[in-house]
Amino acid sequence: MGDVKKVKWGVLGVASIATRKVIPGMQKGDWSEVSAIASRDLKKAESAAKEMGIAKAYGSYEELIADPEIEAIYNPLPNHLHVPFTAKAMEAGKHVLCEKPIALNAAEAETLLAVRARTGMKVGEAFMVKTNPQWLRVRELLREGAIGTLNTVVTVFSYFNRDENNVRHKVEWGGGGLLDIGCYPITLSRWLYGEEPKRVAGTIENDPDFGTDRLASAVMEFSKGQSVFSVGTQTNYLQQMTLVGSNGRIEIEIPFSPPPGRPMKLTISNGMEFIGGTSVVEMIPAADQYTIQGDAFSRAIRENTEVPVPLEDAIANMKVIDAIFRSSASGKWERP
């Protein structure tokens, strides 16, 4: 790998996902180099840069975007700043990996199509699950018929946070659980079934003080099966995902944020293990999904290939989220 010219990345903001997970992951990459970080507070940027060994710190996002040495931008800003700063970076000749959800709604996400067409820059959504080895293995197991036909995907993803200063509780910033974590079971279900849902039904409870959704449940109907999920932001911490097929099931122990230093566990069962049936545990070697995500994007830049989660896929995911909000309001099934 010594001959690869690493892609020079700049990071907008000092969001905790960036400083705790994504930057340390990308710094271990063969194809990625985090060269600069920006904050609207220069001291914050300088302290993050010092702590993480990043060469340059900027006191505004615009200054970083204007840096001619930076080739690609990672945008983990609050949701309402995803599209504006992704567009600004692309107009400045930078490729952009934007944190999920890529926009506040599908219409806003679609505005990036024209920007991409005009600038020729690559833009993708940071769904690290799609390049994670445990999920690549799950999809392989499904294709091999390990559990027969996939009938239903069942997901619960929740955490408890009532901190009124948290960006996730601001409606105008695109807060709420459906955009924050509901996007995961949606994107994975679409990916595992290999198609878009025909219709969706959703029910949402909003926080009386914040106005953001704190409990959201939905049913997605695919031509090949179904997917149901519940996501909560004031619910006990849980992440679990089970795929149930015609003659077996797969359980993913830590579906969304497996710690980088520990092997990932899949359990493949035939449903009768309590009366002597089979249950097989597969351990996927430990891997940092953020290292893999960064390198996959950097490699797409260097080799001029498609990024792992392209804009079309991000827009399709937003359409499902929009339809779940519509369904909760209308009380009817909605088509994405």
Compile the SSE list and pairings.
Layout: E1 7-12, H1 16-27, E2 32-38, H2 42-52, E3 56-58, H3 61-66, E4 72-75, H4 82-91, E5 95-98, H5 106-119, E6 123-125, H6 133-143, E7 150-160, H7 177-193, E8 199-206, E9 213-221, E10 226-232, E11 234-245, E12 249-252, E13 264-269, E14 279-284, H8 289-303, H9 311-330
Parallel strand pairs: 1-2, 1-4, 2-3, 4-5, 5-6, 7-10
Antiparallel strand pairs: 7-11, 8-9, 9-10, 11-12, 12-13, 13-14
Description of the molecule:
There is one protein chain. The protein is of the alpha/beta class and about 325 residues long. The chain folds into two domains: about 5-125 and about 290-310, Rossmann fold; about 130-285 and about 320-330, Dihydrodipicolinate Reductase, domain 2. The protein is about 35% helix and about 25% strand. It is built from nine helices and 14 strands. It has helices at about 15-25, 40-50, 60-65, 80-90, 105-120, 135-145, 175-195, 290-305, 310-330; strands at about 5-10, 30-40, 55-60, 70-75, 95-100, 125, 150-160, 200-205, 215-220, 225-230, 235-245, 250, 265-270, 280-285. Strands 8-9-10-7-11-12-13-14 form an eight-stranded mixed beta sheet. Strands 3-2-1-4-5-6 form a six-stranded parallel beta sheet, with helices on both faces. Strand 4 (about 70-75), helix 4 and strand 5 form a beta-alpha-beta unit. The relative contact order is 0.16. The mean pLDDT is about 95.
Widest sheet, order of strands: 8-9-10-7-11-12-13-14
CATH architecture of the largest domain: 2-Layer Sandwich
Structural class: alpha/beta
Oligomer: single chain
- Report mean pLDDT, rounded to a whole number: 96
**Biggest pleated-sheet summary:** 8 strands, mixed
> What fraction, in percent, of the residue positions are helical?
25-40%
Termini separation comes to 43 Å
Strand content: 25-35%
Radius of gyration: 20 Å
What order do the helices and strands follow?
EHEHEHEHEHEHEHEEEEEEEHH
The top level CATH class name of the largest domain: Alpha Beta
**Can you say what the CATH homologous superfamily of the largest domain is?**
Dihydrodipicolinate Reductase, domain 2
Number of individual domains: 2
Secondary structure tally, helices: 9
